[in-house]
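User: Fold this; tokens only.

Assistant: Input:
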Amino acid sequence: MKSILIPLAGLAMFVGIAFAAESDPCQQPSPEEMARAAGVSLPRLPWHVANIWWDFEAPVEHFTALEMDVTIDRDVSSDYNLYVSPVGIAEINGLSFYGGLQTNINGWATKESRDRVHRGKGAIFSRWSHDKKAPIGLGHVRVEADGLCESAGYEGEFCSVRRPFSWKAGTYTYQVVAGEREMVDGKECTWFHCHVKDAEGLVHEVGSLRFEGTDFTYWGKHSAFVEVYSTAKIPQSGIPKVKVTFGRPRINGTTVALKKVHAYYPDKGGPDSPDCAWVRAAGDDCVVEVGPIFKRDESQRRHEIILGVKTADLGS
């Protein structure tokens, strides 16, 4: 048998790459390196690498609960800033909210503090004010014992609850459920509670937000997204290689009749992103595959997703 000699430097490089891939299943070259190789420029963070929209046949009246299943195929470390948002934006009676799982949650440790702290992996639940211009105070939030909160205006006036939760590879159900009512300044309001349920059935409480009103109509669509964001802790995050699967929206315990589902990859009008993801159908699920940066065919900047079938990876 003919022997093969590998120079020590080459062997070290090979072992280093193999070790890195084994220790970090999400590792890719830096965004700057991938952008140079693809001949593209990087927009400012945050990057919505993929957006999914489900268009309903009609709005849903008497809204009380939203559930979204999400599966993350590998462990994503807190060395990345990854936001998996099964509720990219939702509206009830014109009031908008959003939320999901993040690798690096941050916020204020108490309602009195304004010092930003970082707690690693966790879940968040946020809402905007009625017009996104009027400030919305922390009277609208209930924070869990070890949770965080925030009220600010850097992305429209919003308030938020966040809570540490060491999520990993697996399937989770993100839930927003109507709770008790409360009179505020002579007007009835409703507290909505956010939970994340894991595959073992353990429920992780995230926190609660107060909404004006008692009988709500959920608008005629739903969205989800995958985002790479920026924090003071990690201003420039890498793009993790990962596959994220979103199930169909369930409202008031049932899946909603759909008119259409489509994917959108923003590059003008934001939050813009380098092209590094594709969305495809897998039965009734939508699968987001995040990988290397590439140049997208502009005819595929927005494309329909046909549920009920399993489509091949669109590839790069």
